[in-house]
Amino acid sequence: MASSEEDGSGNGSVEEKENGKKRSLGALATAWLIFYNIAMTAGWLVLGIAMARFYIQRGTHRGLFRSVQKILKFFQTFALLEVVHCAVVHTSVLVTGVQVSSRIFMVWFIAHSIKQIQNEESVILFLVVWTVTEITRYSFYTFNLLNHLPYFIKWARYNFFIILYPAGVAGELLTIYAALPYVKKTGMYSLRLPNKYNVSFDYYYFLIIVMFSYIPLFPQLYLHMLRQRRKVLHGEVIVEKDD
Ligand SMILES: CCCCCCCCCCCCC[C@@H](O)CC(=O)SCCNC(=O)CCNC(=O)[C@H](O)C(C)(C)COP(=O)(O)OP(=O)(O)OC[C@H]1O[C@@H](n2cnc3c(N)ncnc32)[C@H](O)[C@@H]1OP(=O)(O)O
Q1: Which GO terms describe its cellular component (predicted)?
Q2: Measured between alpha carbons, how far is 117 from 106 in angstroms, rounded to an integer?
């Protein structure tokens, strides 16, 4: 088992693959990505430590979301930059866009907006899953950019998701499900006719549609990660369609 990987250009920039060819990432882009990935690894580590401390000190998950929400909101919202990064790294805008938007939606339009569900166990489930995933993922990118990638981080990046992805999705779906009665009762974020715009919108049914949208979308994200796993861990050459 190799302890590290060395395949960078070694000239202050990092080479990325595009359509089987190598494309050079400029020094500025490399420096920015190293900074971004270190900041994100640190942010999610701080979140993980804050959650562990809260649970050890209080012995309950009640109030945990409230106590860590600022860190979560900051770093998860910061991840919107990943859609911009697609212009320079070899990754899909579509896959990244779905992944990031579903997380932003969970943080701001579910957990932040509906205080009544913040103490659900399912919230803790997706928080723990996201935290483990992101510490692994961002440290993977950081070490990769520095051309010193410990094998166990690479292994963790492309194996943990097999369990964590379904667990995270379960946490998210159960949380949205728990929010439904409150949303129905209050009519929050809904627009009823008649109104001056002459449009109606029902957040309750929107949430049901979001839940059903996991059925076609999640398997595609999961299969994408399985393909990445085969490519990175087993060296398979995979030809992917453009977005
Ligand atoms: C408005 C309402 C919206 C509602 C939508 C509802 C949709 C519901 C369906 C969605 C369900 C998602 C649920 C989700 O939130 C649950 C969880 O996340 S649970 C936690 C477990 N999850 C995971 O483990 C998966 C995490 N997701 C991913 O990893 C993603 O697929 C993605 C973030 C998109 C990463 O995929 P990517 O294809 O980029 O894979 P790689 O990591 O292998 O990277 C490919 C190459 O790009 C380089 N790269 C990418 N980012 C960086 C970076 N920041 N810095 C440096 N380099 C980067 C990477 O090195 C690879 O390069 P190369 O191929 O050359 O080696």
Answers
A1: endoplasmic reticulum membrane
A2: 12
Q: What is the Å distance from ligand 1's center to 54 Cα? A: 28
Query: Can you tell me the distance from the alpha carbon of 162 to that of 196, in angstroms, rounded to the nearest whole number?
Result: 48
69-113 residue pLDDT tens: 999 999 999 999 999 999 889 888 999 999 999 999 999 999 999
pLDDT at 51 (0 to 100): 98
Which residue range forms the structural domain that includes residue 26? 15-234
pLDDT at site 237: 74
Nearest-CA residue for ligand 1 atom 6 is 102
If one counts the domains in the chain, the total is 1
Residue 10 lies in a domain: no
- Residue at 1 is within a domain: no
List pLDDT tens digits, range 154-190.
999 999 999 999 999 999 999 999 999 999 999 999 9
Q: pLDDT digits over 121-132, tens only? A: 999 999 999 999
Whole-angstrom distance, CA of residue 220 vs CA of residue 230: 15
Atom of ligand 1 nearest to the CA of 157: 24
DSSP state of 12: S
Q: State the pTM of this model.
A: 0.90
CA atoms within 13 A on the CB side of 89: 19
Ligand 1 interacting residues, C-beta cut-off 6 A: 16-17, 33, 37, 85, 89-92, 95-96, 98-99, 101-103, 105, 129-130, 133, 137, 141, 144-145, 161, 164-165, 168-169, 172, 210, 213-214, 217-218, 221, 224-225, 228
Q: Is residue 92 part of a domain?
A: yes
ipTM value, please give it. 0.93
Closest C-alpha residue for ligand 1 atom 65 = 16
Neighbouring residues of 214: CB distance < 8 A, sequence distance ≥ 6: 169, 172, 173
